[in-house]
Amino acid sequence: MSEKPVFDIRDLTVSYHGRAALRDVSFEVEKNEVTAIIGPSGCGKSTFIRCLNRMNDVVPGAKVEGTILYNGQDLYGRGVDPVEVRKRIGMVFQRANPFPKSIYDNVAYGPRALRMHGNLDERVQGALERAALWDEVKDRLKRSALSLSGGQQQRLCIARALAVEPDVILMDEPASALDPIATTRIEDLMHALKETYTIVIVTHNMQQAARVADRTAFFSVERSDGVDPTGILVEYDLTPKIFTQPSDRRTEDYVTGRFG
């Protein structure tokens, strides 16, 4: 028997200024797995992943309806602190966004801001080790994070997320701006991190989803009013099934390149 899901998403609808960007999404995200979100541009992948740590709270005109249970607790319930949500559910963005500070200060930023207890040097080192970056930067921690390569900067951003001891890591196209070697490093890192963390990744790269994900959700677009596209969940299943025996023709068309 599996443990209860980390996320139980029920009838999630997200609109911006009254226009639905995502409608009636329901599925569960399992613990210590990589879940990939795939689909064409405009289907609401990034909108969806931002709901999981309440980042849409800060988007003007955004309205989130439905229910997201996180370890059984309503993520949008009264009294839930969004800052605590984002501590437990970290985010890594499409483009590496290190602060214009030293490598050390980038990783230490979150623990300092949250006034976390314990030895800060050990916390920084531990996060860099888990992000597979320590050996490359241990002798230059005081140098600017902007001196790192693109792939190293992205792993630094992963280390920054790990430093505050999250349960979940959200990744929005984390390798789209990286070369193939750096992409492989990120993918290898995801395989290692899922032993400890639950990972949700948005990717346009179907081969990447097939390589790294345990389960995959395929989102697509409907134009119910004939004008504005709305993202919908078409199918969610084990990744091998999505790519070899999908249940929905729309999924098959997308993964075989016949979409559109």
List keywords for this structure.
single chain; 260 residues; alpha/beta; Rossmann fold; six-stranded mixed sheet; 10 strands; globular
What does this structure look like?
The protein has 10 helices and 10 strands. α3 crosses α4 (120-130), α4 (120-130) crosses α6 (150-162) and α6 packs parallel to α7 (180-193). It is of the alpha/beta class. It has a single domain, classed as 3-Layer(aba) Sandwich (Rossmann fold). The longest helix is centred in the C-terminal third of the chain and has 14 residues, at 180-193. The strands form 2 sheets. A 6-stranded mixed β-sheet has the order 6-7-8-3-9-10, sandwiched between helices. It is globular, with a radius of gyration of 19 Å. 33% of the residues lie in helices and 26% in strands. It starts with 6 loop residues before the first strand and ends in a 5-residue tail after the last helix. β9 and β10 (230-238) form a beta hairpin.
